[in-house]
Design goal:
The protein is of the alpha+beta class. Helices cover 23% and strands 31% of the residues. The chain folds into three domains: 79 residues, no CATH class; 156 residues, no CATH class; 84 residues, no CATH class. The longest helix has 18 residues. It is globular and about 70 Å long.
Length: 388
Amino acid sequence: MPRIWHSCLLLVCLIILGCMPAIKPVQFPAEPNIRVALLTAQERVAITATAPFTIYSGTKKKIVKPGASCRISRFNTITVQGVLWFKVVNFPVQIKAESNGFVSVADRTYRGYLEVRKDQTGKLTVINILPMEKYLFGVVPCEIGSLNEKKFEAGKAQAIAARSYALSHFNWFNHLGFDVFTSYQRDQEYRGKGAETEMTNKAVLATFGVVAVYSNQVIEAKYHSTCGGYTMGGRAPYLRSLPDTPGHHKSIKPFCYQSPHFMWRKSLNQVSFLSALAKIIPNFNPKVKIKAIRLERDRRTQRNRFVNIVTSRGRHKIKSEVLRGALELKTNFYSVNLTRRTITITGHGFGHGIGLCQYGALEMAKRGYSSEEIIKHYYSGIKLRKIY
């Protein structure tokens, strides 16, 4: 009887699974454009271009000579070279340079074109709209640094990670008119045309359209400077906490061992430490004495989760991430030594520790690992796929 029920149950499961639609991977018929927020909450912006450019506002347009300044105000005016052109502006406003020209705003030059729109408060957001690969031209050198032939595979790995991250964030801020921010503090560091190098552009083109996928979906390929020996796990199954060593064996030196951030120290006196605590702990008395500092560490990731501080007047438990921000520490991977006068913090790594470790990737490339091997080392169970 149990065998019969088991067979029936198996048959039902197969029928159900057979009727379910397969999850198809993200695929583009051609290279997509990405919308990058360059500036937000602006009262006014000044834009120019290296070639003749056209300003579009609703049904109106104006062709402007190279180098001329176009100023757009939140108060619905556009001036060109100091002369009022349009008093009641229809947003969004687009600025497009002709032929192979580049647009410029806030002392940086960009490929593609610019769009200026109002946010919910009436202030201006400047968005750079350009092809994905051209966007990566301005991201990869800012993230992985300069490349040479020995480091080239790390550049390719960085391009795949950056492309995957960007595509996984498509439409995240659709209500605001863009996909990603321009800074590493929110997304990825993007500095436009002026940041490009021949080698990093070559690394981008060598991986054109290639992304990392897990369960047929493009992954949010997070990355950071230096893991300090252990990567940090994330919610996604492809983001696991593992030793950053060949084969993930603990007894071997980590790939990022040569990073200047692999080990660091920060010392401060008790007065400075107490002043920092007063900024993050409500009603904290900075005139107390520190008796003990105890760390609650996640054994798997080696990162601190909470910091318990015992003072002459009580106990306080705070999140390690909060203390990290207050003391401007490089990471949550640290230990603390307390003396009567000083507090010495010894840390490992730089950044959140999730996903690809950039210094580790550079070392792997120098040792002969391919970009695919580097990517699969840092993102568990993924596959590489060309999606356009």
